[in-house]
Design brief:
The chain is mostly beta strands. The protein has 2 domains: about 100 residues, Tumour Suppressor Smad4; about 70 residues. The chain contains 1 helix and 17 strands. Strands 3-6-7-10 form a 4-stranded antiparallel beta sheet, with no helix packed on it. The protein is globular, with a radius of gyration of 18 Å. The relative contact order is 0.20.
Length: about 200
């Protein structure tokens, strides 16, 4: 008998996302890697493990630590800045508070990670050989238009979507999957139109 649990969804953490400690607490993503457009149309920088956040409860700046139970291979990898992993809602901020506050992912909800690893078979022991291999790919933009602020929209075969604008370089976010698969990339006006209709 197979028991399948509903996948847990984790959303990207971006600058300005609140913490659950106090009103006024928020993420300070200061490294320019890429941006995510929020429902309000504003583009915000993605946050990564090691970035900082302001905690209004203890009046200090803390460091984001990866505590949400997302498999590491599912978090975007920032190879430009030392191989940091993407921060998501549920990660904690190590500040002066006795209980570290959690990030409440609010503005980057168009970027989501579904943790399908939570599905398990009753009575079946998982061995290392059963562990899935992680595949990833990163597209490099070339040609006219491949400049800061140029919009993109990526859709994977399993329905995940990633959108934003190029920032500080010509590489799109690294796309990771548990199986080999294709994905489509739209640019410019096509990306904007697809994002609005997504």
């Amino acid at each position: 008998m197979t028991h399948e649990s509903t996948p847990t969804i984790y959303y990207a953490a971006v600058e300005g996302d609140p913490l659950d400690s106090a009103s006024g607490s928020h993420v300070l993503a200061t490294t320019h890697v890429c941006t995510i457009e929020g429902e309000d149309g504003r583009h915000r920088r993605m946050a990564f493990i090691g970035d900082t956040a302001w905690c209004d409860a203890c009046q200090s700046v803390g460091v984001i630590a990866g505590s949400a139970p997302v498999p590491e291979g599912r978090r975007m990898l920032d190879i430009v800045n030392g191989g940091r992993r993407q921060a998501v809602g549920g990660d904690v901020v190590v500040c002066r508070c006795e209980r570290p506050p959690h990030i409440v992912a609010t503005y980057g909800r168009c970027w989501r990670i579904e943790d399908v690893a939570g599905r398990e078979s009753a009575g079946r022991r998982v061995t290392p050989s059963d562990a899935p291999t992680t595949y990833d790919e990163q597209v490099r933009c070339a040609g006219r238009g491949a400049t800061n602020g140029y919009p993109y929209f990526i859709e994977t075969e399993d329905g995940r979507t990633f959108s934003g604008r190029l920032e500080n370089g010509v590489r799109l976010p690294r796309i990771q999957t548990d199986v080999t698969s294709d994905y489509s990339v739209l640019w410019g006006d096509e990306a904007l139109a697809r994002h609005e209709g997504a």
